[in-house]
């Protein structure tokens, strides 16, 4: 059986908990589909908070400064809902007031580099876990190097990577494309370069989308000379 090919570009940010959930739900959908599809998945950069200082901000201070006291009072309930949604997908969220909101530009550069070694999905997943479960600082290049090496990027390739200009132009180009495409929130899944699925949709929704957009092979009612399997001509 020939697998149907699906190209999936995932626009996401390391700071975004729904991006973590959405990635897990997409994986679940592909697992449930079995051998039906051959998915080519690529992570694309999208910074929700591009103006955050390089050292990041404490989560409570960030929400107070940007949204006021009212949203701060709602955080416990929001965290509880998010924690429950994560638990359903096997994710352990550890939210706290001191948890940093990071500048994620360098993290996106690492994900871009990981694509050159075929470990982009692994690095993106490891960054999500490091941030949301282990509460590690995603703006710390030493932490980013550690994660990259653990997921298969050669240590020598990362030695001076963050001190260089590599990946900066590419990350900015991805973000400019998202803006021009009208993507205003993440996660956003662009399928086969033309279909946009917004938000962390349930696995069932992804499966329905795949059925609609996957290029199916249809047999026309035409006869012609051919060789059969086994070499009979």
Automatic annotation (TrEMBL):
It holds the Pfam family DSBA. CDD domains: DsbA_FrnE. Residues 8-208 form the DSBA-like thioredoxin domain. Signal peptide: none annotated. This is DSBA oxidoreductase.
């Amino acid at each position: 059986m020939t697998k149907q090919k699906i190209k999936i570009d995932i626009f996401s940010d390391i700071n975004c908990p729904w991006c973590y959930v959405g990635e897990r739900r997409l994986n679940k959908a592909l697992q449930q589909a079995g051998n039906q599809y051959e998915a080519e998945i690529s992570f694309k950069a999208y910074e929700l908070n591009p103006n955050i200082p390089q050292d990041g901000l404490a989560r409570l201070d960030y929400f107070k400064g940007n949204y006021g006291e009212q949203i701060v009072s709602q955080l416990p309930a929001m965290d509880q809902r998010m924690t429950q949604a994560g638990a359903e997908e096997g994710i352990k969220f550890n939210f706290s007031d001191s948890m940093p909101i990071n500048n994620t530009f360098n993290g996106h550069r690492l994900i871009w580099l990981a694509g050159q070694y075929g470990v982009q999905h692994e690095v993106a997943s490891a960054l999500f876990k490091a941030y949301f479960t282990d509460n590690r600082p995603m703006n710390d290049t030493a932490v980013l190097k550690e994660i990259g090496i653990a997921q298969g990027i050669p240590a020598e390739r990362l030695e001076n990577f963050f001190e260089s200009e590599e990946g900066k132009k590419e990350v900015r180009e991805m973000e400019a494309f998202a803006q021009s495409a009208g993507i205003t929130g993440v996660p956003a899944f662009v399928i086969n370069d033309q279909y946009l699925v917004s938000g962390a949709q349930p696995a069932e929704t992804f499966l329905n989308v795949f059925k609609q957009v996957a290029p199916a092979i249809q047999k026309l009612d035409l006869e012609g000379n051919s060789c059969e399997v086994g070499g009979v001509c």
